[in-house]
Amino acid sequence: MKKILLSASLLAMLFSCQSEDSKVVAENNAAQRQCASQEVLERQLREDPEMALRMNKIEEFTENFTKSNPNYRLVNGKIQIPVVVNVLYKTTAENISLAQIQSQIDVLNKDFNATNSDYGQVPALFSGVKANVGISFVLDQVIRKSTTKTSWGTNDAIKKTNQGGLAAVTPTTKLNLWVCTIGGGILGYAQFPGGASATDGVVIDSKYLGTTGRATYPFNLGRTATHEVGHWMNLRHIWGDATCGSDLVADTPTHNTANYGVPTYPHLSTCSGTPVEMTMNYMDYTDDRGMYMFSLGQKARMDAVFAVGGSRASFRN
Q1: Domain edges within the chain
Q2: Predicted local distance difference test score (pLDDT) of residue 194
Q3: Could you give the percent of the chain with pLDDT greater than 90?
Q4: d(CA 23, CA 14)
Q5: Mean pLDDT computed over 29-38
Q6: Residue 71: what pLDDT?
Q7: Which part of the chain is the Peptidase M43 pregnancy-associated plasma-A domain (predicted)?
Q8: Active-site residues: which are they?
């Protein structure tokens, strides 16, 4: 279907640039899905030059791992991820209910185990590469903090107590998920493997978490967290954050750029070979009801993160 994995020596170049086209698209679609993970990555790379070296090593490990497991039928043992939810609120509405939080945990379990009700909608063209990732999530604890901030932005202040936020709880063995009002039209963002432990985790705007309570259409099916946790497990946007870019996965078609709303299938790329785009992939920018699959190649990248020697091997049971 497409592209080979890039070598580690090329990754620094990939991480350091995002196409102007995709930035313009994001700016012009403030009411549509916006994920700030790539922008956060670029900021972190500027602030911490050693991070690029760490990420290159992770990519080298991932490339070797996926090459040695070409069938993507990997058994890493049972991976169950405890989730610490850090809720920062100013208003009563922002202090979301436990039911809304649990609904998000339920969605993650369905989406990462191919038990989501829309999994059967995957087109026949992609049925051979659709994946059951096989990772489960359990709510570990909920921590709440009242704040005077109306929005938190994407500079990781929410993760720092000296800036009014909440510090990560044992981030080497627990996924920290911060819930707040982010602002700027951003639905969420994640930290890729290789970043600092103190800021590791995922941030989701409370209006786009879970399936009940404050969850707001068309992002009310919990897929924002599925998308961001995908980043946390080392997945890139499916268009590679560049026109006809690479997401470092061999079995996902080359996309022109992000897709929004719910595109009519089949949606053809104008990139080389004009492939049908996998718009229903969780790592695109479609509305929640329009995304419902990971690919086997993406599963392999996630498996590599948790494999012995992987960057998140400490999460193994």
Answers
A1: 8-315
A2: 98
A3: 85
A4: 15
A5: 82
A6: 60
A7: 188-306
A8: 228
Contact partners, residue 278, CB within 8 Å, separation at least 6: 126, 238, 252, 253, 255, 284, 293, 295
Residue (of 5, 1, 48) closest to 240 by Cα position:
5
Superfamily of domain 8-315: Collagenase (Catalytic Domain) (3.40.390.10)
Task: Report the percentage of the chain scoring pLDDT > 70.
Answer: 88
- With beta carbons less than 8 A apart as the criterion, state whether 267 and 239 touch: no
The per-residue pLDDT for range 37-86, each reduced to its tens digit, is 999 999 999 999 999 999 999 999 999 998 887 665 544 457 999 999 99
Q: Whose CA is closest to 96, among 207, 222, 227? A: 207
171 close to 115: Cβ distance less than 8 angstroms:
no
Beta bridge partners of 89: 146
Identity of the amino acid at 53: L
For CA atoms 73, 74, 77, 80, give the dihedral sign. Answer: negative
Token pair 């922008």 in the structure block, residue:
39
What tokens appear for 248 in the block?
Answer: 């470092």
Strand, helix or coil for residue 209: coil
Structure tokens at 8: 């580690």
CA dihedral (209, 187, 266, 109) positive or negative: negative
What does the block give as tokens for 164? 């009014």
Per-residue pLDDT tens digits for 87-139: 999 999 999 999 999 999 999 999 999 999 999 999 999 999 999 999 999 99
Letter for the amino acid at 293? M
Please name the residue that has the structure tokens 């981030």: 171
How much is the pLDDT for 283?
A: 98
The CA distance from 222 to 212, in Å, is: 9
